[in-house]
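Why show two proteins at once? Because comparison is the fastest way to build intuition. When a single record is shown, students tend to memorize it. When two are placed side by side, the eye starts asking what differs. So, the first record is below.
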Amino acid sequence: MGGTERKRGLSAKTRSRLIAVTAVCAVLVAAALVSVSVIDNLNKRAELQAEYERLAEENAELLTREELLKSMLEYCGSDEYKVQLARELLGYVSPEDIVYEVRDPSQTATP
């Protein structure tokens, strides 16, 4: 065989460069995966924060409505409400009331 023999393996310098490049690529891929995960988590956090704020506002509105309904229930059980209802629905007049009757002049009979 008349020429120079070809070496079958990589030199130590080439092997160490290949290992370094492979390590750098692995680190870059890992960093990219972590970045994607972090970005996804930040987006989800923003969505959850917006949902939390919406629900907190809705909760405040419901608490206000609950207080209103409680006061209405309390009023409905009061004597004042019962008297008002009797006046409106049944025409109740208390003994202290002065009753005025207003008549329509067009409906009065003329003799």
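Second record. Ask yourself what differs from the first in the token line.
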Amino acid sequence: MNDTANRQTDRISHQGHVVQVFPGGVDVSVIAEAACVSCKMKKACGMDESKEKIVTVYTPDAHLFRIGEPVEVLMKQAMGYKAIALVYILPVVAVMIALILAVQLDFPELVAGLFSLGFLALYYLMIYLFRNKISREIRFEIRIPKNNQP
């Protein structure tokens, strides 16, 4: 089951291989495959291109994984939706609110546009500043695929 949403466990999974192991975590290289074509979330998660993505998975079992080992990276669908909301939906809503507010306060159009872009920059700065907290909430899991287990 490559790169598909598993409905029984409500998880999104991607096949990949370990590229780095460090205390408390594993970096996994994930490449979008043909199964991503039918996934409704492919554009939102960034897997619609066939580029390699590096995903960091924090796990106390990091020492059990070896570089080059095939693995499966999983995330609850709800976490995927939360990530999409944080990165795509909320910024658009924030820009629209800032733009409407600026227009209602009779700012000139140029100033209103710059104000809303500044608000967007502030939003992404906040995301950057709180990235560690966000990464603790949006968690990936890692496991050895069933066909590779001894």
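One difference worth noting in the second protein: DSSP finds four helices and six strands in the chain.
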